[in-house]
Design a protein that fits this description.
Blueprint: E1 3-10, H1 16-29, E2 35-42, E3 48-50, H2 63-69, E4 71-78, E5 81-86, E6 98-99, E7 102-106, H3 116-124, H4 133-140, H5 142-151, E8 159-163, H6 166-169, H7 171-181, E9 185-189, E10 199-201, H8 204-214, E11 220-225, E12 230-239, E13 244-252, H9 263-267, E14 292-293, H10 300-316, E15 321-330, E16 336-342, H11 350-354, H12 360-379
Parallel strand pairs: 1-2, 1-7
Antiparallel strand pairs: 2-3, 3-4, 4-5, 5-6, 8-11, 9-10, 9-11, 12-13, 12-15, 13-14, 15-16
Length: 403
């Protein structure tokens, strides 16, 4: 019997379109002999839609027209079933569109990857792939992530963070912290991805300009010392806290020490292919279109170090499913720093697993297996007591209660 597998994508995020690309790749990779695939598209105003049109990538060229042709739906739990229903049911139309056995969230960035969709799925009590609510939230908030990594002695570049409002009243104090790091520095909104709002500053004037841009996307802004000269090495991890394994490594191409891969570089084929790059510039290929070298040209010692750090980062952050951990390596000293974790990476980092003999289809199988395994474990845990304290409650008994 096939599993009804709902793939959630889109959402109110600056990475909305990227999510569509990644989700479409995941949908294509799911084995139709095992899964009845149900695409659930979440628009930028957080409404959910179902339609056969969602299987066709060309449908997304005009999102407004697409939405007008799709059925807006809601998802509810009825008895032991998670049911997809039309918001506006027709008198003689279908009352149910389908049911969900397992969910696969492929939502990048805020209002999705950050624990939002995971919390929704938790309330529905449906098994879902990837990180749970806590792992997703910590992975998305780089400030929380960096504090946890620091507590576990995982190497990172020197950094600090402030609320974006602090620059208005305490500009000199903020700049004093920057000067301790020494320019150049990189600024990042704490909870975005795909290089959105990220920039390098070389002096105070540039710093203030970059800060203004970063604060448009988040109320927390991170400032970090630039590693220079820098090599960017990434490693994917697949599994959970009980068992996980590292993928092959990749090196992401940069043409200069101060260059950042932009949103366009990553997803619109803007980068020139590096030697050995995979799928560089491929139309609609998501992160697989970025100029990259796979496997990364590093020594066995460096490879083992990065793999071990990737596995440790994955575990201490409570991650699950398939993630990608991004590293920075000082090209001269060879010192390695953890940059961040991507709990729902672009293209689900499938290209790092195909190099290890794991096809995209097998990767999707494993994500579903991990989701079902986690749900089985949780079904044996205690989350509530079969009591009714309110049966003896009275207005008088509330007097003197702790406030």
């Amino acid at each position: 019997m096939k599993l009804n597998t709902a793939v959630f994508f889109g959402g109110e995020s600056v990475e909305h379109e990227v999510s569509i690309i990644s989700a479409h790749q995941a949908i294509e990779a799911l084995d139709r002999e095992k899964y009845n695939v149900i695409p659930i598209y979440i628009s930028k105003d957080r409404k959910m839609y179902c339609s056969e049109l969602l299987f066709n990538m060309s449908s997304y060229k005009d999102l407004k027209q697409l939405i007008s042709q799709c059925t807006q739906v809601t998802i509810v739990r009825e008895d032991n079933r998670v049911v997809i229903k039309p918001v506006r049911a027709k008198l003689f139309g279908e009352k149910e569109i389908g049911t969900i056995d397992v969910a696969v969230p492929v939502m990048h960035g805020t209002n999705g990857e950050d624990g939002t969709i995971q919390g929704f799925l938790e309330m529905l009590k449906v098994p879902y792939a990837g990180c749970d609510l806590y792992g997703a939230a910590v992975g998305q908030d780089k400030v929380l992530m960096k504090h946890i990594l620091s507590d576990n002695d995982i190497p990172m570049a020197n950094w600090f963070w402030v609320y974006s409002s602090e620059i208005d009243e305490h500009k000199d104090e903020v700049l004093a912290k920057v000067h301790k790091l020494i320019y150049p520095v990189i600024l990042k909104p704490a909870r975005t991805g795909s290089s959105v709002g990220i920039a390098i500053a070389h002096n105070d004037e540039e710093y203030l300009e970059c800060f203004e841009d970063a604060r448009q996307y988040d109320e927390k802004v991170i400032t970090e010392k630039v590693v220079k000269p820098m090599r960017e090495i990434n490693c994917s991890v697949l599994g959970d806290c009980y068992h996980c394994e590292a993928s092959v490594l990749e090196e992401v191409g940069h043409q200069s020490a101060d260059e950042l891969l932009t949103f366009k570089d990553k997803y619109q084929g803007g980068s020139k292919g590096a030697k050995g790059a995979k799928s560089a510039g491929s139309k609609g290929s998501g992160m697989a279109s970025t100029a990259r070298i796979v496997p990364a040209p590093v020594s066995d010692e460096q490879r083992k170090l990065i793999e071990n750090l990737a596995l440790k980062t994955f575990k201490v952050l409570g991650a699950s499913g398939v993630c990608r951990i991004d590293f920075m390596m000082d090209a001269e000293t060879k010192r390695v720093y953890v940059n961040e974790i991507n709990t729902i990476p672009g293209s689900l980092a499938f290209y790092l697993w195909t190099e290890k003999g794991v096809s995209f289809t097998k990767l999707m199988d494993r994500l579903v297996e991990i989701a079902l395994e986690r749900e089985r474990r949780r079904s044996r845990m205690t989350f509530s007591y079969d009591t009714n304290l309110l049966s003896t409650y009275s207005e008088n008994s509330a007097k003197g209660a702790k406030r």
